[in-house]
Amino acid sequence: MSHAQADGSAPNRIHPTAVLGEGVELGGGNVIGPYTVIVGPVRIGDGNWIGPHVTIGTPGEDRGGPHPVAWEDAPTGDPALDGHGVVIGSRNRIREYAGVHQGTWRASTLGDDCYLLRGSHIGHDAVVGDHVTLACNVLLGGHTHVWSHANLGMGTVVHQGARIGPGAMVGMGSAVRREVGAFTITVGNPARASGVNLVGLSRRGLDEATVEALTPWVKGKGDLPDDGLPDDLSTLVKAWDARPREEH
Question: Structurally, how many domains does the chain consist of?
C-alpha cells in the first residue's frame, strides 16, 4: 500500500501490521500503531501519534451509501477533499480503537493538538477544532461541530448536527441533543448548562476581573466585553458569537 510523505520531513514510523490504502497523504514524524487501518482520501499532518486498532477514513454510516473495499482499491472520492474525505492536522494523539469516518458532503476534520481517548468516535462530516479532548467512548454523530478547547467527558454522546461551543466542558455520560454554549459546564441527559467553566477560562490566561466581565456573555445575559481578552481567545469567541443564526 502506498502513502505520500512530505519532502524533507521527519520519517514516519508505521507498524508493519498497519494498513494504509491508496489516497492517504502523510506529513512527517507520525507514529501509526499495530493493526490500524487508514483509507483514503485522507490527509494527515505532522507529529501525530495514532495508536493500535485505530480506523480512519472508513465510509460514513449511511445505510444507502457506498462501502468500497478501500484498503485494496483507489478511493472513489475527491482526492482534493473538496466535499468528502478526512483531514487531520498535527500533533494529535489518537488512542486505541478510536475512529474517524469519511465525510459525505464535506471533509470530516480534526484540527491540531487534540487528544482522542480510547474508543472515541468522530462521525461523518463532523468538524473538530484545535486542542479538543474527547474522553473514552465519546461519540460524535454526523455533521457535529466541536469548537476549539472543548472537553467532552467519558461516554458523552452528541446527537448529529449538534454544536459544542469553544471551551465548553461536558460532563461524563451526558447526552447532548442541541447546542452547548461557549465556556459552559454542561451535564446530564438531556445535557443542560450548570455553570461557567472557570477553570477553562483561567487556563486561557484570564484573570478574575476579566472572567467576571465575560461571565454574563457566557450565561447568555450580556454582550462580549470590548477588550481584556487575549487575541487568540477574542478571535475564537467572536467567531462563535457571529455564527449563523441556524446554529443558535
Answer: 1
Report the pLDDT value the prediction gives residue 7, as an integer from 0 to 100: 58
In a domain, 42, yes or no: yes
Which position among 40, 99, 119, 142 bears the catalytic label? 142
Does residue 19 lie within any of the structural domains?
yes
pLDDT higher than 60, residue 229:
yes
This prediction has a pTM of 0.91
CATH assignment at residue 13: 2.160.10.10
- Cα-flanking dihedrals φ and ψ of residue 44, to 5°? -125, 135
Active site residue 188: no
Of the residues 125, 129, 141, 181, which is catalytic? 125
- Which sign, positive or negative, has the C-alpha torsion 122, 179, 188, 198? positive
- 125 in active site: yes
Domain extent, residue 90, equals 1-125
Looking at residue 4, its pLDDT comes to 54
Q: Is 178 within a domain?
A: no
Local structure of residue 236 (DSSP, 8 states): H
Q: What is the C-alpha to C-alpha distance for residues 65 and 76, in angstroms, rounded to an integer?
A: 12
Count Cβ atoms within 10 A of the Cβ of residue 81 and give its class: 0-12 exposed, 13-18 middle, 19 or more buried: buried
Residue 176 lies in a domain: no
Residues 6+ apart with CB under 8 A from 149: 129, 130, 131, 132, 166, 167, 200, 204, 236
Please determine, for residue 5, whether its predicted confidence score (pLDDT) is greater than 70: no
Of 125-129, 140-144, 214-218, the least confident: 214-218
Can you give the pLDDT at residue 247?
47
The C-alpha cell of 165 is what?
461551543
Catalytic residue, candidates 84, 124, 143, 149:
124
